[in-house]
């Protein structure tokens, strides 16, 4: 895993952290903007996570051909979940994004056991996924808080 993947991955958490904090700190009349920004970024990231698997499927060696359809499916499902989440009100939408990010990481962990996803990617992936999910859930809590 190149060092740039680690620091760019960590930098990718900054919008999650900033918008989650803003969802708690802004006055109620501006909170909706922070919650939408958090959900929109969560949607982008969840879609991005799925796209990783299209790349893996398209560059897979011939001996991994039997995994092509599940990999391509894992590339599409997160984007569909993300889109649905953005159409929901903030609390269920943010919770669905958090769940989608963690569910994608869980499926990737299963794939890693078959050697289909690099182990060092999974270590980074779980750290970033937990951070993103916590921020999304913090935003959902802020929305519940009024």
From TrEMBL:
Pfam families: DUF3429
Source taxonomy: Bacteria, Pseudomonadati, Pseudomonadota, Alphaproteobacteria, Acetobacterales
Species this protein is from: Belnapia rosea
InterPro entries listed in its UniProt record: DUF3429
Transmembrane segment boundaries: 7-26, 32-56, 124-144
Keywords from the UniProt entry: Membrane, Transmembrane, Transmembrane helix
Transmembrane helix as UniProt keyword: yes
Leader sequence residues: none
ATP-binding in keyword set: no
Protein known as: DUF3429 domain-containing protein
């Amino acid at each position: 895993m190149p060092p740039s993947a680690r620091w760019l991955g960590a930098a990718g958490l900054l919008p999650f952290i900033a918008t989650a904090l803003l969802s708690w700190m802004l006055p109620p009349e501006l909170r909706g903007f922070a919650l939408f920004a958090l959900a929109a970024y969560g949607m982008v990231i969840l879609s991005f996570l799925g796209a990783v698997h299209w790349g893996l499927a398209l560059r897979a060696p011939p001996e991994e051909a039997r995994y092509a359809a599940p990999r391509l499916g894992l590339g599409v499902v997160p984007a569909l979940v993300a889109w649905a989440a953005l159409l929901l009100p903030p609390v269920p939408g943010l919770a669905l994004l958090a769940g989608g990010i963690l569910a994608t990481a869980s499926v990737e962990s299963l794939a890693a056991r078959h050697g289909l996803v690099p182990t060092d990617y999974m270590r980074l992936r779980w750290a970033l996924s937990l951070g993103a999910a916590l921020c999304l859930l913090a935003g959902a809590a802020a929305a519940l808080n009024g």
